[in-house]
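I am still learning, so can you show me any protein sequence you like together with the matching structure tokens, please?
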Amino acid sequence: VQKSDGTLYWIDDFLRPLSVGTTSGSITRDYIFLGGKRIAFVPLSSGNPYYYLSDHLGSTAVVASGDGKTIQWEADYFPFGSPRTVITNLADNPYQFTGYEYDSGTGYNYAVARFDAGRWGRFLSPDPYRGSMDITNPQSLNRFAYVSGNPMNSIDPKGLSGFNAQTVNCMFDESGNCVAKGGGGGGNGSLIMGNDIFDALAGAPGTYFNLDNGSINWGFSTDKWYADQAALEAAAAANDSRQTPEVEAACEQKICGCCECDFWRQYSQPFQRC
């Protein structure tokens, strides 16, 4: 993946940068992961490792030298992710709040699917993943909200779906499921990772998404959103007309405990999901 400034990223199946280099193809830095967490980086020019020390959200609090004797980078953050102060800045560290890559040029955090504006406490674009909406949680219907307004306890690694930060101490399997807990313990979680990220982005209202020679092209268009919404409403109407009287009656009477029928119709989800 190539950044607008020409920086090249070599990423894994979970869109995590493993190496960074230049347009000439030379690698300048490697990142080390353990259990799904970034734990160190190694500048190839020196070969000296630097280690990340993170808080309960996975935010980088300290970057330590390889021998553990000196602090090379240290910072504090406001609750929604904007930098409060950088106390020590001897090492170049772009991965800061909850592990997001901080863009110093704009002051925004790169969250894969979209950008997080920490100083505003929200994302800059709507959540493209419809599966993150929950009719029982009105905050989830705000498509710009960051982790439902609960930044002290929740994180959203890919900008698609927030979950309890306790799972930051988990060891994850290939599907993003918590299979073993580390020091902080607590909670089961499920991440949107790997191919699920592409599935979530592709086809979301108003979004376009494609891969072009290894580059990820993604964006949001208002005109496309209106066109997609019209198509969704037409599909929802057609979907309703195909329901059997038995299914309709069960839903209206809430036999299956579903109070979301109108919600599912609106977003053209399978009606039988009730």
User: Anything to note?
Assistant: The first strand starts at residue 8 and ends at 11.
